[in-house]
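Hello again, I could really use a second opinion on something today. Take your time with it, there's no hurry, and the full record follows here:

___
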Amino acid sequence: MPANGKHRRKKSTFLTRGLVAAGTGGAVVALPLIGATGAHAAEQAAPAAASGAVVTAAAQVKAQAAPAAQTAAPKTYSVVAGDYLSKIAAEHDVAGGWQRLYADNRQVVGENPSLILPGMKLTLGAKSTAKAAAPKAAAPAAPKAKAKVTQKAAPTGEQTRASRSTERAAAPAAAQSSGSTQTASSGWVTPVAGGISTSYRTAGAMWSSGYHTGADFIASSGTTVRAVGAGTVVSAGWSGAYGNEVVIKHADGNYSQYAHLSSLAVSAGQSVSGGQQIGLSGSTGNSTGPHLHFEIRTSPSYGSDVDPLAYLRQHGVSV
């Protein structure tokens, strides 16, 4: 029994005080901390949401811009002298090559894919909607000159008239010819200025006749090709293995042929003078590369060939 009749005060344990502190002060402290953490997280979430919105908007703009770029207007190309479809397709990276280029522009080019003329407008990489329009060809010779060649049928008279017409045309023809083109005083010229790459009657299995029926002149694509003498164009257009060709009848009854042309500047029935431009060299038809195949024939048809260089020399041309 305690002394002096006093009751002893029961001591609270450390664990109890600790629980009380945790249960009281801890609760007071915990509530502000939780609130602060939530506010801080919200502040961080807002910029993140804004950033996500910007990224989403940028992606939408990019997605909308892609179709617009794909549907941009196709390019248009204007044909110049010396052009041919395979060359244009290669230079402008046309998918599908010259076949695709021709298919897209067939209504402009026409039925002959090897015959394109300066001034034609071709659509690159898309179907052309342009209407077919033939570019302007070279102006026909003066009617007066034509009448002098075709007025009479007598060979002697025809030769005389052709000679007079040639003398009058000699000066303009010389002016048209390049400096290195061989021109005779009679008005006869070489068809191009280049030298010979394959001579007449060169033997070989590549030719159906077993030999070369003409003379090949060195000429890069687009080189001006000239009539060797005065005459009348009997044909101008596509001719199978010869590609685009021109055949001219001369006053002496012989015919000159110019093959593998990339473009034509004359048409059948037109009168021409010696040295007049009749087209541009190329590599159409059965050809291994740009050059001019030149023949002299006794008729307008294949198989009547004679030595073309000897013929030119007979007319005073140094070749």
Remarks:
- The mean pLDDT is 72.
- The helical segments are 14-70, 85-91, 97-104, 106-109, 143-150, 155-176, 308-314.
